[in-house]
UniProtKB/TrEMBL annotation:
The keyword Cell inner membrane does not apply. The gene is gyrB. It holds the Pfam family DNA_gyraseB. Keywords: DNA-binding, Isomerase. It comes from Virgibacillus proomii. PANTHER family: DNA GYRASE/TOPOISOMERASE SUBUNIT B, DNA TOPOISOMERASE 4 SUBUNIT B. GO terms for molecular function: ATP binding; DNA binding; DNA negative supercoiling activity. PROSITE patterns: TOPOISOMERASE_II. This is DNA topoisomerase (ATP-hydrolyzing). Residues 113-283 form the DNA topoisomerase type IIA subunit B domain. It catalyses: ATP-dependent breakage, passage and rejoining of double-stranded DNA. Residues 275-328 are annotated as: Disordered.
C-alpha cells in the first residue's frame, strides 16, 4: 500500500495481546490459511493450510480480554459512524456492519466520496449551492477537498490523514483555511465588491455556514503527528500542498460560477459588517461612551450643560468654535 494510518506497525499485535483469543483466516495464493492465538497472543498450534480458494483477503475474529477491559460490549452506533466515514473517504468501497446480537445490519457505499460526505453533513440544512469537490497531488501528497455553504452561521471542517480523523486539525487544515481566505479576498477585489480602501475579509467572515472536508494521503516518510494520539497532523509539506491545491481549484470555481461566487462574497461582507458593529459596541461599552438615551450628545459641536435643572440652563448659538471661547 502507498499510505497507512498507522505509524508504528503494532496495531494488530496490540489487539492480539489484549484479547482472550484471536483467529486469523487468510485467503492468499489460491489457499486458505488459519492461525489461532490465545491468552495474550500465544499461538495455538502451527499455521494450518485449510484448502483452496479464489478469494483474497484477511479475516480477523477476536474477543477482548474482560480481565483487562472494564467493558467488552461494543456500541453499534460508534462502529457505524467510523465505518461510514471510511466508506465516504474510500469511494467505491463497500463496508457491511452486522450486529449478531440483534440481527441489525447496515451497508455503506458512496461512489461520490467526499461530495456525498458533505451532502450527508448538510442534509438537514438549507444550502446555498451544490457541493463542490476537487482533488490534486503535489510532492507525493494527495489532497481531496469538498465544501458547501449553508445559510447558518457555524463552520464545520472535518479533516483526515490517511483515512484517520484528525480531530485537533493540523497543517492540512491550516493550509486549507489560508487558501480559502486569500482566494476569496483576491476574487472579491478583482470583481470590485471589496474596494481598495476596504479591509480584507477575515477567515471567520468567509466561513460562516461553511461545511468542508479535507482529506490528505501522506507517504510514510513524510508522515508526522503531534503527540501519540494522531489527533493533529504535523507534516510541514501538507500545509503548502493543501494551500496550493485548494487555491488553484477554488479560484477556478469562483471564476466559473460568478452567480454563486457573488452571493458568497456578499454574505461574507455582511458577516464582516456585523463583526465590526459588534466590536464597536463592545468598545463603546468598555470605554463608557455608551450613554443612556437622554444623555446622548447629538453633535460634537454641542457642549453638555452643567446643571440638570432646565431653568438654570441656556442655549447659546455662536458663529464658529472660536466665538464659543471658554464655554467650549
Amino acid at each position: 500500500y502507498k499510505v497507512s494510518g498507522g505509524l508504528h506497525g503494532v496495531g494488530a499485535s496490540v489487539v492480539n495481546a489484549l484479547s482472550e483469543w484471536l483467529d486469523v483466516t487468510i485467503h492468499r495464493d489460491g489457499h486458505i490459511y488459519f492461525q489461532r492465538f490465545e491468552n495474550g497472543g500465544k499461538p495455538v498450534g502451527s499455521l494450518e493450510k485449510k484448502g483452496p480458494t479464489k478469494k483474497t483477503g484477511t479475516i480477523i475474529h477476536f474477543k477482548p480480554d474482560p480481565t483487562i477491559f472494564n467493558t467488552t460490549v461494543y456500541n453499534f452506533e460508534t462502529l457505524s459512524e467510523r465505518l461510514r466515514e471510511a466508506a465516504f473517504l474510500l469511494k467505491g468501497l463497500t463496508i457491511q456492519l452486522q450486529d449478531l446480537r440483534n440481527n441489525q445490519t447496515e451497508e455503506y457505499q458512496y461512489p461520490e466520496g467526499l461530495k456525498a460526505f458533505v451532502h450527508y453533513l448538510n442534509e438537514e440544512k438549507d444550502t446555498l449551492h451544490p457541493v463542490v469537490a476537487f482533488e490534486g497531488v503535489q510532492q507525493g501528497i494527495e489532497v481531496d477537498f469538498a465544501f458547501q455553504f449553508n445559510d447558518g452561521y457555524a463552520e464545520s471542517m472535518l479533516s483526515f490523514v490517511n483515512h484517520v480523523r484528525t480531530k485537533d486539525g493540523g497543517t492540512h487544515e491550516s493550509g486549507a483555511r489560508t487558501a480559502i481566505t486569500r482566494t476569496f479576498n483576491d476574487y472579491a477585489r478583482r470583481i470590485g465588491l471589496l474596494k481598495e480602501k476596504d479591509k480584507n475579509l477575515e477567515g471567520s467572515d468567509i466561513r460562516e455556514g461553511f461545511t468542508s472536508i479535507v482529506s490528505v494521503r501522506v507517504p510514510e516518510d513524510k508522515l508526522q503527528f503531534e503527540g501519540q494520539t494522531k489527533g493533529k497532523l504535523g507534516t510541514p509539506e501538507a500545509r503548502s500542498v493543501v494551500d496550493a491545491v485548494v487555491s488553484e481549484k477554488l479560484s477556478y470555481f469562483l471564476e466559473e460560477n460568478s452567480d454563486v461566487s457573488n452571493l458568497l462574497i456578499k454574505k461574507a461582507i455582511k458577516a464582516k459588517e456585523a463583526r465590526e458593529a459588534a466590536r464597536k459596541a463592545r468598545e463603546d461599552a468598555r470605554t463608557g461612551r455608551k450613554r443612556r438615551k437622554k444623555d446622548t450628545i447629538l453633535s460634537g459641536k454641542l457642549t453638555p450643560a452643567q446643571s440638570k435643572n432646565p431653568k438654570r440652563n441656556e442655549l447659546y448659538l455662536v458663529e464658529g468654535d472660536s466665538a464659543g471661547g471658554s464655554a467650549k
